[in-house]
Amino acid sequence: MSERGKMTAGQLYDPGDAELAAERRRAQELMRDYNATIVGDTAREAILDALLGSRGKACALRAPLYVDYGWNVHLEAGVFLNYGCVLLDVCPIRIGAGTQVGPMVQILTADHPRDAATRATGLEFGRPVTIGRDCWIGGGALILPGVTVGDGAVIGAGAVVTRDVAAAATVAGNPARPLHRAP
């Protein structure tokens, strides 16, 4: 299996592989081009189409935007990403229709072995992140590898999401926990 195949399957892979390095360079060139645009520039749509895996209608992505590969990012219709979002997409990142993502949010699928000996080999792995429809993610939130966020969930600004978030739940804090409101 290729290193790309291992990576997208969530297995240990070598990020220094020549094919992966070329894919990251391609993404960096497209990010550079996109991040130099402003709203209304006619080149924006074509750049995003070349960069991202899929993008629904009426998505709005504010530059700058940062990805590892781009082709592992899948956005449904009406997704909004504010300034400075980081999408480390070694595994798929899927964001549902109508979800709004605040500035400086990081969605990470990239991960590293916990034991020092394996980590010293330079191998990495990843786990996909799925965010449902009509979610709201506050500025500076961090969503870690393997997390699923249910439809209609709210993630407070600055939250560090280490576990799945139920549909319609509101979570905040570090680590993110459900907020309980008095009746």
Explain what the structure shows:
This protein is an alpha/beta fold. It has one domain (3-178): UDP N-Acetylglucosamine Acyltransferase, domain 1 (3 Solenoid), CATH 2.160.10. Helices cover 20% and strands 25% of the residues. It has 4 helices and 19 strands. Strands 2-5-8-13-16-18-19 form a 7-stranded mixed sheet, with no helix packed on it. Strands 1-4-7-12-15 form a 5-stranded parallel sheet, with no helix packed on it. A 5-stranded parallel sheet has the order 3-6-9-14-17. Helix 2 runs antiparallel to helix 3 (44-51). The protein is globular, with a radius of gyration of 17 Å. The termini are far apart. The mean pLDDT is 96. Keywords: Acyltransferase, Nodulation, Repeat, Transferase. Acetyltransferase implicated in the O-acetylation of Nod factors. One of its GO terms (cellular component) is cytosol. This is Nodulation protein L.
Count of helices? 4
CATH class: Mainly Beta
Beta-strand proportion: 25-35%
CATH superfamily, by name, is Hexapeptide repeat proteins
Whole-number total of structural domains: 1
Helix/strand layout:
Blueprint (H helix, E strand, L loop, with lengths): L2 H6 L9 H18 L8 H8 L2 E2 L4 E2 L3 E3 L5 E3 L4 E2 L3 E4 L4 E3 L4 E2 L4 E3 L1 E2 L4 H5 L4 E2 L2 E3 L4 E2 L4 E2 L4 E2 L4 E2 L4 E2 L8 E3 L4 E2 L5
Parallel strand pairs: 1-4, 2-5, 3-6, 4-7, 5-8, 6-9, 7-12, 8-13, 9-14, 12-15, 13-16, 14-17, 16-18
Antiparallel strand pairs: 10-11, 18-19
Helix pairs in contact: 2-3
